[in-house]
Structures are given as C-alpha cells and as structure tokens.
Write a structure and sequence with these properties.
By secondary structure, the chain is of the alpha+beta class. Helices cover 18% and strands 40% of the residues. It is built from two helices and twelve strands; from the N terminus they run αββββββββββββα. Helix 1 crosses helix 2. It is elongated. Bound molecules: calcium ion (CA). Calcium ion binds next to strand 12.
C-alpha cells in the first residue's frame, strides 16, 4: 500500500512540477560576454546588474551605431555549437538627446535552425527602463537556441549623441527533457517521507 501511495504521489507531483515549471515566469540571466568594440566603452557595465552603470557609445551623423556583440551563457550543445535555449531578451537603455535623437533600437539574433537570423527594431523605447522582446509574442516559435546577438542604436541627428546601454538580459528557458528531469528529481525529493 505504501508503495502504491508513493507511486501516485510521485506521479502527481512530477506532473504538477512539470507544468508549473513550463508556465513559470521568465528567469533573466546576464550575458556571459560582451565583446569589446573600439566605438564603445565600459561594455561590461551592461551586464553588471547595476542600473546606474552603462556601456557607452558616442557617435555623430544620422544612422546606426556600431553594434555591441552580446553572448549569453551557453548551456546546450547542438550540432557541435553551444547555445542558450532562450525565451526572449530585454534591454534597459537611454533614449536621449534634446529631442530624443537616440530613439531607435535594433537587435539581430543568431539562432540555431532554418531561421539563422531573427531581428526586431523598435522605433522608440522607454528611457532608462526595460523593454522586453518575448519570443512567444512573435509568429515564430516560442523559444530559440541563441548563439549570440547584436544590438544597435540609431541617431536621428548629425550631432554627436551618446547611446547608453544600462543592462541586457536573456530569458533562460528549459527544454522538455530538462524540465522532465527536474520535475522527477523534485518529486523524488518530496516523496522521501514516511507514511
Ligand atoms: Ca549596468
């Protein structure tokens, strides 16, 4: 009887944990690396979890800044390349200048599979606040294996203006197998008591 009870409790808790983990809120993680670029300074300030520090690029002329290349923590290998299974990204940046001349942002993401490169552009975004790109909101799949990405900012004036990226995060997802393994582990731990 004890064995049967343990079996049913283990099964029930596994299922509950599996689905609760599937719909849990996003786990945001910082980049592993932000590649240095000659036109940017203090690049690592965009991954120090401090909203008062920032990576900076001052550039003049109408057009896009040079990109920052941002690499996530890579925890899954597919086809010999390491990726992060990623549910989305978010950034916190300055929208600045006298008339918000730095006002547009663009992100290009290198992903595994046929898409190869996905991108999104914002005509504007909130100043020094979070902007999220949740992949579930797109017409594409809900998660991607992300290798690296590029972020750009746009200057609408010929004057020199500063792009400031305060923070950047990746939404860390879990594969079906990883969630199943975690749910079984959790259920086993919870079932270790006497009836
Ligand atoms: Ca920072």
């Amino acid at each position: 009887m004890k064995a049967i009870c343990r079996f049913y409790i283990l099964t029930l808790t596994s299922v509950l944990f599996f689905f609760s983990s599937a719909f849990a809120g996003t786990t945001w993680v910082s980049p592993e690396t932000i590649a240095p670029d000659a036109t940017w300074t203090d690049e690592d300030n965009a991954k120090d979890d401090d909203l008062d520090t920032y990576a900076n690029s001052s550039f003049g002329g109408v057009g896009w800044s040079r990109p920052l290349m941002i690499i996530p923590p890579l925890n899954i290998n597919k086809g010999g390349t390491d990726y992060l299974l990623c549910s989305g990204v978010r950034f916190n940046a300055r929208r600045g200048g006298a008339s918000n001349e730095i006002r547009k942002c663009k992100i290009e993401v290198n992903v595994f599979g046929d898409e190869g490169l996905i991108e999104r552009e914002w005509a504007s975004y909130p100043n020094h606040n979070w902007t999220e790109w949740n992949f579930k909101d797109t017409e594409l799949d809900s998660m991607y294996y992300v290798e690296l990405l590029y972020i750009y900012f746009y200057n609408t004036t010929s004057a020199t203006r500063a792009a400031k990226l305060y923070e950047f995060d990746f939404g860390q997802g879990a594969s079906f197998d990883q969630r199943l393994e975690r749910s079984l582990d959790s259920a086993l731990r919870r079932s270790r008591y006497d009836f």
